[in-house]
Amino acid sequence: MFGIYGVNGQIFSGRLEQLPDVRQVGRRRAVDAIGTAGAELGDSAARVLPERLRAASAAYRRMLQIEEERGPLVHARQIMRPQVITLAAADEVARAWSLLVDRRIRQAPVLGRDGSLVGIVSEHDLLVALNADRNAPSDIMARHVADVMTSPVVAADPLTDVRRIAQVMLERGVDGVPIVDERHALVGFVSRGDLLRALVADPPLSLWR
């Protein structure tokens, strides 16, 4: 289950399939599905490639010798970071920049006065703001995070399928998804790095169903 949060609180709650009906938070060019790989080479290549992909997938699984009894990674709560570094909407941009640099992170959720999720601020957001007014960087640094953050922001609940979170990242062009509980409180964060680490270090990730 996903939600969209902004400065006025939660503005959407529903399934992944309903997200396209909501105002876009950001979208990059869609990634071609594996099933369409080779289509541009003609019918013969399009028929051969899926067979090779299936064979490669089967060989990879045999190589991993996956222990099914360990249980697959399925839900966001299994890979999310529960200790989330956050910023306040009222913080100055200078503090946001220092926090991202010092903690070596690329984004941070932004909380309102009541502690609710209102947006997310990233390196990209800060660099765009600085570039937009390059003649007065000190003025930008004194502005508030609320002025440069991305809002509204897509969030998910702890039981959301990790594959659906990955799909949101690809389709919306975002690098992370905040995790909120039934009280709309921020309880974790899943980044692209978290998904990659889970894929590499914690098999079996539930990718085969």
Describe, in short, the structure shown.
With 209 residues, the chain is of the alpha+beta class.
The total tally of domains equals: 2
> Could you describe the largest sheet, including whether it forms a barrel?
3 strands, antiparallel
The amount of helix comes to: 25-40%
Q: Biggest sheet: strands side by side, in what order?
A: 2-1-6
CATH topology of the largest domain: CBS-domain
Sheet/helix structural class = alpha+beta
Overall, the morphology is globular
Give the CATH superfamily of the largest domain. CBS-domain
- How large is the share of residues in beta strands? 15-25%
Q: How far apart lie the N and C ends?
A: 19 Å
Low-confidence stretches: 25-41
CATH class of the largest domain: Alpha Beta
Mean pLDDT: 78
Would you write up a description of this structure?
This protein is α+β, with helices and mostly antiparallel strands and 209 residues long. The chain folds into 2 domains: 2-30 and 72-201, CBS-domain (Roll); 34-65. The protein is 35% helix and 19% strand. It is built from 7 helices and 8 strands; from the N terminus they run ββαβαββαααβαββα. Strand 4 (107-111) and strand 5 (117-122) form a beta hairpin.
